[in-house]
């Protein structure tokens, strides 16, 4: 009898052992097939001389071809591989990129670009007018969607390109956008299939592991000052806290897109250096002026006066960011005017509301008019922790003048549907039509614009005048000052905080220059001294 | 037996059709137009022309039923479509990430087994003793700690403070440890208690009394007689858990930068990347059916009475 027990136990243990061994084997086999990628770590002793920078980014490169827009952090990677005709310097002034010079004619409807000579793409194809024409052909997303109104591209000679437009736009500013670079015509094969990225940038793609890492190596034939790094590895780490810990543990040397609270904490870490630069993006609350109660300009003005953005930055955002005080354009941008500001004044805000008939009759802290409480619904997407902090702070500040703002987080699909149906009072957003130093952003308040929830003929006229290429800079400055003033008086939106771009790096990363230019990641001249 | 398996596999067909039909139509009920979202993601204005050209490119200009039929037609030919977001074939997107998810699912299951089996056995054997209480406390802890929190704490301790393990990425066994522990701990909590309860129930049955009457030692009775029978409910539940694990562990994959299907599917949901979601749901339905079939087959190993079709008929 005992023998059978023992054999029973043994049998069962055997079976269990088999199952366990099977699991281990399966895991080992799979870890083998998932893991051809471990050569990138700096652990290999033989590779010590390799100068490698590991950068933590939040999302993978969704696409390398200009037929689709590179979204999220893809653009940081694109900016190392591809280059544009026009670049921006650290003060966001337009400077030559792949083009040496450019000039408008016919009132800004025709733009002629002279190209730099002797440049080769990563695949060996020479850079010339044909490549530019190819990059801005119907294949390109930006042309297909009619975002740049190009009707024809002429190539009088190998190094001259002429763009004919259907309406005047400041074309060089569009050509600074990192998502609209010049690509090699050799990027696609005979069947039109994309082969791989071939740009003119200081680094070229060596390996791309989806959702894991992107390995770039130096372009030895670069046409300007060569890259100082042998290798740049972008590591995809979606979670902001995990990016911080990867930096603290030394698994990456540099991290971008950090939360304000984490950045505040990292400032006290002696092994980490924080680089900050005022960016071109500004957070704002946009009003639905086509619907009660925000169709009343007094209520909008009262909100503008109740908001204290300085307090939000100081108390809730670790001092990161610059209070906008209602000013639409970040000082990093052209035509920004620091003298424009709305000084917070809750008392005046209350008076404005009272004059417009909003009073707190029943003493519940919320004002009312004709029996309707002053309640507004604010929508924001859950992606920006900063916006969420701002929303909660705004809620409290508005409450103090008797406005009850409900905050609702919505994912982007539902949010855009709500916006299209006008089912909101306030949208909390950041940026929008913002790239380079040119105030494209101001267009979103023109009455016909998809993102506009306001209509003002005077404003529309001003924006139209500003677009014209025949104006000199002084005249433009005047016009854009007027448009900003109009926004601050009529309040289709309250501008809250000018974002500060933050990059954190280990302190052995030397000579890094952070630029306001976003999403370009300036790695020129960077050194690693471990 | 072979007939049974074929039968079960044939049942897959209505399941897959039903699942794909439901997802297809429910996805389209969700607010938000993928074409518009894609234009918006470009930071540009979603003008009607831009959205229309995008919609045409994505094939969204056809009516819903036509799109479904087209999708089925292509799917039958092995073509799951192209991701709106990356422009890559969906099948490739899934195939790239599934091994990572499978690896993590197996590793966390292994970790769970290593933790839950001894804990369950010991707490049943020493029922109501301090070991039992300790295991109950650990289970309560494991079940109530959210995965993202535990994950971040583990990263902080082992990655940042001690510097023993990598905090992100995949590739080696070392990379696997932290995410597998994070997932396995929560699971082990549940399974240890489940196994204990199941063991105690079996231990009260007549054949166990008979074994006791024969003077066998308690330990032998539990391991040789009760354990195998007590495993049945545990294995059933495990089948479901494995399915869920393979469906992707979004939170853990995000925290540990693990390149699995969970992250892919969630990103696809937010981008309204219909083809990826359709493909994902289809593959997951397949995984669930297959895992459940395997679980059912494993019953036979555990309990010969459940042998299908064989044996004499009564």
Give a verbal description of the structure.
The complex is a heterodimer of chains A (530) and B (314). Chain A contains 14 helices and 21 strands. Chain A has 530 residues and is α+β, with helices and mostly antiparallel strands. In chain A, the strands form five sheets. In chain A, strands 1, 8, 9, 10, 11, 12, 13, 16, 17, 18 and 19 form an eleven-stranded mixed β-sheet that branches. Chain A has a four-stranded antiparallel β-sheet with strand order 4-5-7-6, with helices on one face. In chain A, strands 2-3 form a two-stranded antiparallel ribbon. The radius of gyration of chain A is 27 Å and the shape is globular. Chain B is mostly helical and 314 residues long. Chain B has two domains: 20-76, no CATH class; 100-272, MetI-like fold. Chain B has 14 helices and no strands. In chain B, α7 crosses α9 (173-203). The radius of gyration of chain B is 24 Å and the shape is globular. At the A-B interface, α1, α4, α6 and α12 of A face α3, α4, α6, α8 and α9 of B.
Question: What is the total number of structural domains of chain B?
Answer: 2
What is the N-to-C succession of helices and strands of chain B? HHHHHHHHHHHHHH
CATH superfamily of the largest domain in chain B: MetI-like
Major sheet attributes of chain A: 11 strands, mixed
